[in-house]
From TrEMBL:
PANTHER family: PROLYL ENDOPEPTIDASE-LIKE, PROTEASE FAMILY S9A OLIGOPEPTIDASE. Transmembrane segments: none annotated. It comes from Prasinoderma singulare. The keyword Hydrolase applies. This is Prolyl endopeptidase. Gene3D superfamilies: alpha/beta hydrolase, Prolyl oligopeptidase, N-terminal domain. The lineage of its organism: Eukaryota, Viridiplantae, Prasinodermophyta, Prasinodermophyceae, Prasinodermales.
Amino acid sequence: MDETLKEVDGGIAWGDDDRFLYYAKMDDTHRPYQLWRHALGTPQAEDVKLLEEADELYWMGFGKTRSGRFLVTQLETKETAEVHLIDLRAAEGSAEAAPRMMAPRERGVLYEVDHLGGDRLAVISTCEGAVNFRLLAAPVPPVGGCSDRGAWEPMCNAGGEAIMPYDEGVYLTGLEAFESALFLEGRRGGYTRVWRIGLTDGVPISPPQEVRFESEACECNVGPNHEFSAETVRLQYSSMVAPQQDLDLDLKGDALTLVKQKEVPGYDPALYETVFDECVARDGARVPISIVRRKGAGGGDAKGPAPMLLYGYGSYGVCIDPSFDYKILPLLDRGMQFAIAHIRGGGEVGRQWYHQQGKFLTKKNTFNDFVDSARHLISAGYTTPEALAINGRSAGGVLMG
């Protein structure tokens, strides 16, 4: 079949079968702002517009839940969100097939939604002052949508006990629902984490269990998974000494099986080591520092200080995680250490690391944290002033003075 759709954002989502697909159109500034449904075999002029976002501050994104039942449309700025669901299994043209709003936008409130099965949804949201997102449950909104968040409640087990009360030290960044488990992506202690919650009929049967990888200081996430009823879930992991790994987690147990590891010719991970430290900044904030070096190169051990390259970014809430970077291997092989200071302005320790403590009138914390991290690395014996080099690029370039 030869069909062309014009003025399309680029991404598409299929309906419940192969009759319809959904796409977004862009405005004159290339902002996705309209959601359309196209019936295969018909001209684009007959397509149906389902949603339009007139506010130029809001960006439109959409995707189908893994369960296949809903199309989720996210209207979002950096600080505010609004979500609409379309039931893809409802009869075409019926009231049940029209977009349903989860909750109206409220300035400063972000939220994301996934389908647990049946009429149950999982939600993470910054509502009620949860700067780092709380875990909630909600029913599928009725025809016509919801006018408030009144039906949202803490996610509870069958006994009515909240399984994950809000903890400001845990920053939830995403959720991935399967028939028998809900996975949460997030951060704790400055580093990425993945939690698993067992489900039966969309109801939790276990508290969140953190998936344990080889190193806690790493970059990890839920990988590409397409089957809602999967018995294994693909996860991805990398550390400063481990090239990216694809791992399968058995949902009937907790065994992790290595499926594939990125090949780096000539690289031997046994020759390198990582150290994870933190400095206490001048205002008392604890700033994580990730270090990688060749074993025996020195740096805070019996061999004394060693040369070091310290990297920082600290802008826009961007997280610089301790993942594998083959480009620094020549430095390590020459006896140099490489360190990342996870300074404020980034998002490693939570949204407050940027929104409350690293921009506008608090932007000076970004610079102070970087200086204080360098001083800590010197005072702790990792390196010396003469042997310390610093690096920052793009927005991190302002750290260079």
